[in-house]
Specification:
By secondary structure, this protein is mainly alpha-helical. It has a domain of 64 residues: lambda repressor-like DNA-binding domains (434 Repressor (Amino-terminal Domain)). Helices cover 52% and strands 4% of the residues. It contains 18 helices and three strands. Strands 1-3-2 form a three-stranded mixed β-sheet, with helices on both faces. A hairpin with a 6-residue loop joins strand 2 and strand 3. Helix 13 runs antiparallel to helix 14 and helix 16 crosses helix 17. The two termini are 34 Å apart. The relative contact order is 0.12.
């Protein structure tokens, strides 16, 4: 007999941006009753589950899905502190629901790749001089392992998906987080991307998340150290030192704007890279950021590179609809979604569009 999973009730409520009191009020029940169902103190009757599903726009089967949700990885701690509890809960809920969908579609859909995203323990993997490998060296190792040529990476999303990752476009409803990543046994490495972030920032953030997946799943350090290492890895992975050094001998906004067009990373990222490599002085770095602030470029720079679009999620949906002969209703049932919600959530994948920023999970008001 199916058992009600109280964790899924919390997940569905969080996905809609509702507090427990707000949901109880909508459903016309006491919060105490709802709380007992959500904490697992007691199991709700079938009639309540059907009403709950209708209110939150999931299928009743969603609440009987076994398993537990996952929280944010530890290296997202600093960004988590800045988020409201409701915004954080909604983001975590979306990650878990998307993960559930991918795990179900991967039962029939096979990812074909000979490459993978490795885990490097910096204390065990020796770099130059038999010392612990640095983020700069780790980035070089990954580029060599994936046999990347010199020059800019044409498409970060395609690269990650070609090497064992899945990029999932999301609307986080905040600009505090551009992307997140998870490594969970039995699944490919998942990269959740905020579709509303500037494309140059997304590329850097994906490389930053790759750094976490390479350096920090086998070893956990302090929040500040992990963030700094992932950022150093991202700069080295996107803009190798031996290539950028001669190009940054002239350091001004015009040169950085030209290099941005070539490397497809922000002028800010290039300036940080120059400072890390000690190509510029602290004074030059300070004056650069002052000038960027005066021009209003610190929040969003001009001349963004073209938007990149992931393809694996679209392939999974298309495979089920076209190859396996699922109807939209059948696939939505597999994913525990109502058909209208499925069409909203996977509209881009169904039509083969680049995500426009439309929220994949709607907050019902």
């Amino acid at each position: 007999m199916e058992k009600f999973n109280h964790n899924m009730m919390t997940l569905a409520r969080d996905a809609r941006g509702l507090t427990q009191a707000e949901l109880a009020d909508r459903m016309g029940v006491g919060q105490g009753t709802l709380s007992k169902y959500e904490t697992g103190f007691s199991d709700p009757p079938r009639e309540f589950v059907e009403d709950l599903a209708a209110e939150l726009k999931f299928l009743p089967s969603f609440f009987f899905e076994p398993g537990r949700p996952y929280g944010m990885p530890p290296f997202h701690y600093r960004r988590r502190k800045k988020l409201s509890s409701k915004a954080l809960a909604r983001i975590v809920a979306e990650m878990n629901i998307r993960r559930l969908h991918i795990s179900k579609m991967l039962v029939s859909f096979s990812m074909r790749t000979n490459a993978f995203i490795p885990e490097i323990n910096p204390d065990e993997y020796q770099g130059k001089g038999r010392t612990a490998i640095t983020p700069e060296e780790a980035a070089r190792v990954i580029r060599e392992m994936w046999m990347l040529p010199t020059g800019p990476i044409p498409n970060m999303m395609e690269l990650l998906e070609a090497n064992g990752g899945v990029v999932i476009p999301c609307d986080f409803g905040t600009d505090l987080i551009d992307a997140m990543s998870q490594r969970i046994d039995g699944l490919p490495v998942l990269f959740f991307v905020n579709v509303n972030a500037p494309s140059d920032r997304i590329r850097h953030t994906l490389a930053h998340e790759l750094g976490h997946m390479v350096l920090h799943t086998a070893q956990v350090k302090s929040d500040e150290e992990m963030e700094d290492e992932a950022d150093e890895f991202a700069g080295a992975f996107l803009v190798p030192a031996n290539e950028i050094r001669p190009q940054l001998r002239r350091f001004d906004l015009r040169q950085l704007a030209n290099l941005k067009l070539y490397w497809k990373v922000s002028m800010g990222s290039l300036a940080v890279r120059a400072a890390r490599l000690k190509i510029i002085t602290p004074y030059q770095s300070k004056m650069f950021w002052i000038e960027m602030g005066k021009l209003g470029y610190r929040r969003r720079e001009p001349n963004e590179p073209p938007k990149e679009s992931p393809s694996l999620l679209r392939q999974m949906v298309s495979f089920h609809l076209k190859k396996l002969g699922y109807t939209a209703k059948q696939l939505s049932t597999l994913l525990h979604l109502t058909e209208p919600e499925f069409n909203v959530m996977y509209r881009s994948e169904i039509l083969g569009e680049v995500p426009s920023g439309r929220p994949p999970l709607r907050v019902v008001k």
